[in-house]
Amino acid sequence: MNDHSPKPNFQKSFTQQEAIPDEGIRQAVEVLGTGKLHRYNTGEGETSEVALLEAEYANWQGSRYCLAVTSGGQAIQIALRAVGVRPGDKVLANAYTLAPVPGAIHAVGAEPVFVEIDDDWLTDLDDLRAKAESSGAKYLLLSHMRGHICDMDRVVGICDELGIKLIEDCAHTMGAKWRGTRSGNFGAVSCFSTQTYKHMNSGEGGLLTTDDAEIAARATIMSGSYMLYPRHGASPPAEAFEKVRLENPNCSARLDNLRAAILRAQLRLLDVNIQRWNERYQALEAGLADTPNIRVVLRNQAEFYVGSSFQFHLDAGAEQIMDFVARCLARGVEIKWFGAAEPAGFTSRYDSWKYFGELPELPKTLSVLATTCDIRVPLTFSLEDCVLIAQIIGEEAAQI
Question: Which of 70, 170, 194, 267 is 20 to 30 A from residue 273's alpha carbon, by CA?
């Protein structure tokens, strides 16, 4: 007898985050009560919420200096300028990323040299070396896209050998590690995002970390510190600013005290939340293992990841994948496909960034993205939710 019972649907939103912790709400209300939203609007003996956030995040990250700014994209732009990128310079970058990363390269007037990715969405390090040598580029903007960390030992070795400055985009790897070292502690400077869909949520926001006093000083001036840099919470000594204070433009990218108050409360919960994300990721991984037409990529054991999103390959053609995505959506499961020729929502392929002009074709990257599916994993999902999501995806994949 055929089973005609209705298939289960998923009811929750893939874009709904958890509420801000009560402590953050209380502190935000206190900030509103003072009216002192600007980070430098402090009286004698007062320390701003932004300065406190910078000190606390630097301590958590294990970096000497931290600068809070308005977005992850602004953090990247400022980082590129602070390490010395000038108009016309070549910047190596992995082709699998989101639009703010190439947008930052374009904003500083630099020229991207896009690097291929491999089947596991990691930067192809053989292609990186080849393009570094052929282009002469002296900067690498490495995006740990969707939380996938490539072999950082090899990356650092290539950069050291060829005299390349490494800028890490850690928007998706806050709290992740490679062989025990935190993502963001490998390069000259690193950038984090606190946009709503990241690991801490302030709507928009970003953090920049470095151990280099001159880079930190330049970045602080560019963030819009005027001459008020002594009011920062994790800033280099005053003498670091004397050399650079008149050489860098003011980009007005200051974080405000309201968002800093919200973030400080979340930072205290971040380690616990990382465990919660990984439990949900592993539930999806187990649920989709050995599923027809789906390839789940097992993570490298040297990598400690933060599973706030989940990717898999669907072994099918473009029309079949689009139909699969539509069928999953009809059952409440929102899947993003990276193989589409046209940008959709937050997702775009490197060959859609037309503002760079004609870009060389990257056949390996296009082939990998052609089968790449992606879902968000907000902490509003329970483990049971993740089991149901995997069931729905598996049932619809079996129809291909």
Answer: 70
